[in-house]
Amino acid sequence: MNNETRFAQKQGIDAQQLGDELILTDTPKKTTHMLNPTARRIWELCDGRHTVQDMERVIKAGFSITDGRDVAHDILQAIKTFVEKGLVAGEET
User: Fold this and answer.
1) How far is CA 36 from the centre of its chain?
2) pLDDT for residue 93 is more than 60
3) Strand (E) positions, the chain?
4) pLDDT digits (tens, 9 = 90+) for 30-87
5) Which are the contacts of 19, defined by CB distance < 8 A and separation ≥ 6?
6) Cα 8–3–92 angle (5° rounding)?
7) CB 35 within 8 A of CB 21
8) Which of 57, 43, 60 lies closest to 7 in space, CA to CA?
9) In angstroms, what CA-CA distances link 63 with 24, 36, 40, 56?
10) pTM of this structure
11) End-to-end CA distance of the chain
């Protein structure tokens, strides 16, 4: 997984909005995941078209980010969690 990898949501994941958060339900696995607004935006960007670099630009433009914050690292950590939970898959470019 690197900054040029593109990620896509796996089929069969249902998403429901609950206030600012997003609830993902993986019915076959019988698991539920609640995403905060930042994780939600990263999830939405896992559409198979955006690289981590693309996501970093979007997150920096849409959220207040502290100077010196390693946004790419944070995005990769969120995606790593998504991958481990079987919510997204990555494809090297």
Assistant:
1) 11
2) no
3) 6-9, 13-18, 21-26, 31-35, 47-51, 88-91
4) 999 999 999 999 999 999 999 999 999 999 999 888 888 899 999 999 999 999 999 9
5) none
6) 55
7) yes
8) 43
9) 22, 13, 12, 11
10) 0.88
11) 10
